[in-house]
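Regression test case RT-17, inverse folding.

Input:
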């Protein structure tokens, strides 16, 4: 994958998962590639969702100092999509057309706004095309 790709929140969450080794390793590889190649990107929504999960749902919640470090070293450098009126309008259009939840539609909208060719997530239909973007599940074998 040498094209621009958008990473959904679940990939970041799995990168900390101690119980599902395959998903953890695969997620870490995706994040590393995103940082090294600068082809991967996220939105502020991904940051918000990750922080919520990391502080409330991780088996051992992340300490603020560790979370702050992760934000600065991983999430902030990848963040190129910011909530705005155009992104919300596109999310509503996606929600209406594909019947995704509004929050999922906002992720898809942000991925489209970054001109990503791929959306990396396990939360959608594998290989589904939305406009010029394809959804890929990195854990499907």
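Golden output:
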């Amino acid at each position: 994958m040498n094209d621009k790709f958008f990473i959904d929140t679940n990939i970041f969450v799995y990168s900390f998962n101690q119980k599902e080794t395959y998903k953890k390793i695969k997620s870490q590889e995706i994040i590393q590639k995103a940082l090294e190649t600068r082809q991967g990107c996220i939105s502020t929504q991904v940051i918000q969702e990750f922080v919520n999960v990391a502080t409330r749902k991780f088996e051992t919640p992340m300490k603020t100092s560790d979370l702050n470090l992760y934000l600065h070293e991983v999430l902030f450098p990848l963040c190129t999509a910011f909530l705005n009126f155009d992104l919300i309008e596109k999310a509503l259009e996606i929600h209406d057309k594909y019947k995704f939840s509004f929050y999922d539609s906002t992720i898809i909208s942000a991925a489209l706004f970054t001109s990503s060719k791929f959306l990396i997530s396990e939360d959608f239909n594998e290989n589904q095309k939305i406009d010029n973007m394809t959804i890929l599940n990195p854990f499907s074998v």
